[in-house]
């Protein structure tokens, strides 16, 4: 007898939930959602190609470039932690990054996910904690001294290390993993710049670098914390399983290595944030750049012509002089087409493919999308560059010329600067942009003027699922010495 009321109560709950879910699902505009788990099953199925999956979902909106979904289909949570707005609409991005900056901090979810890795460093803080670090760092970044220091570290590494390794590989007809070499190079530069110390990981025997490996694992596993509902990673952390187990052990290695490398906790914290900022981003951008160059010999030739013109002017006609010393500061400044090619690379392969923001108060985005307080807005930087309504019919083509001014003599960003946010924009814009261009130009020159690259047959270039757009299997190439005209 008692089971009957229970049955009716349950039936009423299921009925009420079904009605509620029906209305929720009608409002959502993204991939299919299921009761309770929302779009989690699809997210899980696509976890190894998450950036492309999000880009595909945004394309499927037919040009509106925004969709909404939920990963926890339960009353209350479905409009808070479980609710996600994905967008690549430049006006929305401007609104989030600049106009209503205070309404879209990184937020507690992001900070909790990253706390184990970055603590409260510049990348993982909001409000006053962020502002103080930003102001201090901004002062440093505007000085010419820092640019000179960067040029010195880059040139030293190129001359004393990179060229030795590449020459040896070219002579012995051995392949190299260019991504690995670039990561080592940028790691040395950023350590040199931040601590005045050189970890010497770019030496001919390519020693294992426990810090760098641990850092990669930690960054990769932290991304999973952001993708799934918070209670999942917390549960895994308590149980010590899956990605959380890997994260724990990599953080331990990181601390041990840091213990002897850095001097104080505070310095360590600041430093780690700068390593994240300055190591992976430039090397990953360069890896995609070299990949694109291998597929576009006409762009490669233009770059070689430009570098040759500048060096003929500054160093005379003797080719040996072109190859003896790395680029000077002023030579790098004159390489306009190279800057266009690097920027075009970042348009299609932004080092940070997406970013997450927390919504403090209910708001309406410029395209009319309502975003509830407590939910998350994710803007997909990768999708912006691959959307026809934003970059035109040829958005999938690699065309450095699109960055050339109408007069044809200088680099020109788009009128709507929120069409290109690979370096972020607004108050949190990248502080190291100029340093990054200097470093990337120097490395591009150092590799391309000496060698022609060819991909090792059968090597598959694939994206790795991490916060940074690494190549999963690296970039295996052969090098042939280049004959200069
Ligand atoms: C191609 C190279 C680079 C790219 C694509 C890039 C991109 C970015 C992006 C997207 C952000 C915003 C991150 C966020 O808010 O979550 C950022 C911030 C930042 N970047 Fe870069 N970056 C590059 C190189 C560098 C380098 C070489 C340095 C330093 C030497 C640097 C220093 C910083 C700093 C300090 C911030 C924090 C700004 C803040 O939160 O106020 N970046 N960068």
Automatic annotation (TrEMBL):
<feature type="transmembrane region" description="Helical">
    <location>
        <begin position="6"/>
        <end position="25"/>
    </location>
</feature>
<dbReference type="GO" id="GO:0005506">
    <property type="term" value="F:iron ion binding"/>
</dbReference>
<dbReference type="InterPro" id="IPR036396">
    <property type="entry name" value="Cyt_P450_sf"/>
</dbReference>
<keyword id="KW-1133">Transmembrane helix</keyword>
<keyword id="KW-0349">Heme</keyword>
<protein>
    <submittedName>
        <fullName>Cytochrome P450 86A8</fullName>
    </submittedName>
</protein>
<keyword id="KW-0472">Membrane</keyword>
<dbReference type="InterPro" id="IPR001128">
    <property type="entry name" value="Cyt_P450"/>
</dbReference>
<comment type="similarity">
    <text>Belongs to the cytochrome P450 family.</text>
</comment>
<keyword id="KW-0503">Monooxygenase</keyword>
<dbReference type="GO" id="GO:0004497">
    <property type="term" value="F:monooxygenase activity"/>
</dbReference>
<keyword id="KW-0560">Oxidoreductase</keyword>
<keyword id="KW-0479">Metal-binding</keyword>
<feature type="binding site" description="axial binding residue">
    <location>
        <position position="430"/>
    </location>
    <ligand>
        <name>heme</name>
    </ligand>
</feature>
<dbReference type="InterPro" id="IPR002401">
    <property type="entry name" value="Cyt_P450_E_grp-I"/>
</dbReference>
<dbReference type="GO" id="GO:0006629">
    <property type="term" value="P:lipid metabolic process"/>
</dbReference>
<dbReference type="Pfam" id="PF00067">
    <property type="entry name" value="p450"/>
</dbReference>
<keyword id="KW-0408">Iron</keyword>
<dbReference type="GO" id="GO:0020037">
    <property type="term" value="F:heme binding"/>
</dbReference>
<dbReference type="InterPro" id="IPR017972">
    <property type="entry name" value="Cyt_P450_CS"/>
</dbReference>
<keyword id="KW-0812">Transmembrane</keyword>
<dbReference type="GO" id="GO:0016705">
    <property type="term" value="F:oxidoreductase activity, acting on paired donors, with incorporation or reduction of molecular oxygen"/>
</dbReference>
């Amino acid at each position: 007898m008692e089971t009957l009321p229970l049955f009716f109560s349950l039936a009423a709950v299921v009925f009420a939930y079904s009605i509620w879910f029906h209305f929720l699902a009608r409002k959502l505009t993204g991939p299919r959602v299921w009761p309770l788990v929302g779009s989690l099953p699809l997210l899980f199925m696509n976890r190894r190609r998450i950036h492309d999956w999000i880009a595909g979902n945004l394309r499927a909106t037919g040009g509106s470039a925004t969709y909404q979904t939920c990963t926890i289909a339960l009353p209350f949570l479905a409009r808070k932690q479980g609710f996600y707005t994905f967008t690549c609409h430049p006006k929305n991005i401007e609104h989030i990054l600049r106009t209503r900056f205070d309404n879209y901090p990184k937020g507690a979810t992001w900070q909790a996910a990253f706390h184990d890795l970055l603590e409260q460093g510049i990348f993982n803080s909001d409000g006053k904690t962020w502002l103080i670090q930003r102001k201090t760092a901004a002062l440093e970044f505007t000085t010419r001294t820092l640019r000179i220091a960067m040029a010195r570290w880059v040139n030293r590494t190129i001359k004393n290390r990179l060229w030795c390794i590449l020459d040896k590989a070219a002579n012995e007809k051995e392949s190299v993993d260019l991504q690995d070499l670039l990561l080592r190079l940028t790691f040395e530069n950023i350590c040199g710049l931040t601590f005045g110390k050189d970890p010497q990981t770019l030496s001919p025997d390519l020693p294992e670098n426990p810090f760098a490996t641990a850092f990669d694992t930690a960054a990769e596993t932290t991304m999973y914390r952001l993708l799934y509902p918070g209670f999942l990673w917390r549960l895994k952390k308590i149980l010590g399983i899956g990605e959380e187990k890997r994260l724990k052990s990599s953080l331990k290695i990181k601390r041990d290595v840091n213990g002897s490398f850095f001097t104080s906790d505070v310095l360590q914290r600041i430093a780690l944030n700068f390593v994240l900022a300055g190591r992976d981003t430039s090397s990953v951008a360069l890896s995609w750049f070299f990949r694109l160059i291998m597929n576009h010999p006409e762009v490669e030739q233009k770059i070689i012509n430009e570098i040759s013109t500048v060096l003929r002017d500054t160093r005379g006609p003797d080719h040996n002089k072109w190859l003896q010393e790395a680029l000077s500061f002023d030579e790098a400044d004159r390489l306009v087409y190279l800057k266009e090619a690097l920027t075009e690379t970042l348009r299609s392969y932004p080092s940070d493919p997406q970013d997450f923001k927390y919504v403090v108060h209910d708001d309406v985005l410029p395209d009319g999308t309502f975003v509830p307080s407590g939910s998350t807005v994710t803007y997909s930087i990768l999708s912006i560059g691959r959307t026809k309504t934003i970059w035109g019919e040829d958005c999938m083509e690699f065309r450095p010329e699109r960055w050339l001014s109408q007069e044809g003599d200088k680099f020109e960003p788009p009128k709507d600067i929120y069409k290109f946010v690979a370096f972020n924009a607004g108050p949190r814009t990248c502080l190291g942009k100029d340093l990054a261009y200097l470093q990337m130009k120097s490395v591009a020159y150092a590799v391309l003027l000496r060698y022609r690259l060819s991909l090792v047959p059968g090597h598959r270039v694939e994206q790795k699922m991490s916060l940074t757009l690494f190549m999963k299997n690296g970039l295996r190439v052969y090098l042939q010495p280049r004959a200069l005209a």
